[in-house]
Amino acid sequence: MVFDKEESVSLVPLQSKGKPRVCAGCNRRIMDRFVLEALDRYWHEDCLKCACCDCRLGDVGSTLYTRANLILCHKDYLRLFGMTGNCAACSKVIPAFEMVMRARENVYHLDCFACQLCSQRFCVGDKFFLKNNMILCQLDYEGGHQNGNSADQAL
Ligand SMILES: [Zn+2]
Ligand SMILES: [Zn+2]
Ligand SMILES: [Zn+2]
Ligand SMILES: [Zn+2]
């Protein structure tokens, strides 16, 4: 799995003679004894939080993840960006946040989710069939063979 960007968070002592630090989260001066440094900016301990679950990243460990202007904990990063994988039809990577179709353990681009024999697209309620990891419409499935490992599902 490849992460877009991985940043480690370090708790650094604030130098009393240093310039005043402004928190990148709340834009207020940081008067605390310690300041978090991450993404080349400074943060209150309470302000460096996961954009999804609000957990404090300074506490949780030493690594945070950034993508699409979000700061995320490991768990949420994986949940949002780690699961998409490759389209089972065209084998290309499906970008995060793109709508996908799922059939069993496979994921597909919306555009790729069509009968792989006749290219018919499916509408909600249509039945589709998986045979040898190919998506088939009902006609092609029934016109073909009735054996093999297959499953019918309705959208
Ligand atoms: Zn702050
Ligand atoms: Zn989180
Ligand atoms: Zn595809
Ligand atoms: Zn078909």
From TrEMBL:
One of its GO terms (biological process) is positive regulation of transcription by RNA polymerase II. SMART domains: LIM (SM00132). GO terms for molecular function: DNA-binding transcription factor binding; metal ion binding; transcription coactivator activity. Pfam families: LIM. Keywords: LIM domain, Metal-binding, Repeat, Zinc. Residues 21-83, 85-147 form the LIM zinc-binding domain. The keyword Metal-binding applies. One of its GO terms (cellular component) is nucleus. InterPro entries: LMO_RBTN_TF, Znf_LIM. This is LIM zinc-binding domain-containing protein. The gene is LOC110521281.
